[in-house]
Amino acid sequence: MSGATFVLNGRSVPFKLGQFILDAARDNGIQIPTLCYLKGLSPSGACRICLVEVKGARSLMAACSTPVAPEMDVATDSPRVHEARRLNTELLLSAGRHDCLLCEANGDCGLQELAYRYKVDGSFFPRNEDVYPVEDINPFIVRDFSRCILCGRCVQACNQLVVNRAISHGYRGKDSKIVTGGDNPYHQSDCVFCGQCVEVCPTGALTEKKMRGLGRPWETKRIRTTCPYCGVGCQMWLHVKDDRIVKVTAVEGAAPNDGRLCVKGRFGYDFIYSEERLKTPLIRENGQFREASWDEALNLVASKFTEVIEKHGPDAIAGVSCARSINEDSYQMQKLFRAVFKTNNIDHCART
Ligand code: SF4
Ligand code: SF4
Ligand code: SF4
Could you report the per-residue pLDDT of 159-179, keeping only the tens digit for each? Predict the structure, then answer.
């Protein structure tokens, strides 16, 4: 049904058949706030922040999960909508312990942003005084259940985006929480520490452990790069403060990873600052290593290869390229073996 229109804030605008109000509004330049919505996944309608007014409907509708119909009349910013969003933000704030000053998400938190936008201070409802134990026993991810708003984004990301199926909704009522199988800590569960749940969490309920205290969002700059760990070439953002990486996130909407990273790409950057990092080649002599120049080391390797080939022929040597090299390096290595050494003894460690 091309050419179909609906009324958005008093203006007739086009939409695509099957689109939800949220997406159609965004296509027409109207941003409706959300907390639980994850682009490309089935909407859960859990947070009730994207409520909009649809003319003729008895109650407010969740824009993320209500399909647009031709000539539907939708108001996204009416006083009734604002009041509902304000009330729902109050409820979310009062249900947890939200001490923003101490929170790693301060300045990059969807709930904080809504509280600011709708002038909510969390004092309207009695606060839930329960303080849930923080889980920070693993090296990568801190889980603070008192800051969790049960939006379910982490569950969707784990199950539908990276398909690790490590977490789910557990318990009921005021005991509701996000759980692993058996409600064990992450490191004793099926979690592979890809960190996708952290990436999508809109609050400080899931944060990167290694960045604790290292920099606020407004103090860091983002630098786009390609993950150095393997040949897939995932696109990532380095969050850098004072020339030091404090965290890594994935680039959304960019091939090949489209917002995903694995544990190595997301958390494995400490080696850059390791005191044990080798910065010059080492040559072993009499059982001891000594530092050498690159020229000396490369000449030694070349002379050894030449010696073996002259004595035993080119098939006496073999090469295994590293999965952590970039594709171009692996390509050059097979060229070196086939075209220069004249042997097909070349393989890649991903096949072992
Ligand atoms: S999760 Fe958000 S609202 Fe809660 S304490 Fe952290 S920054 Fe504040
Ligand atoms: S780190 Fe990855 S595997 Fe573990 S719970 Fe989060 S999304 Fe699932
Ligand atoms: S941990 Fe974060 S993403 Fe998961 S339900 Fe809680 S607030 Fe939402």
Answer: 999 999 999 999 998 889 999
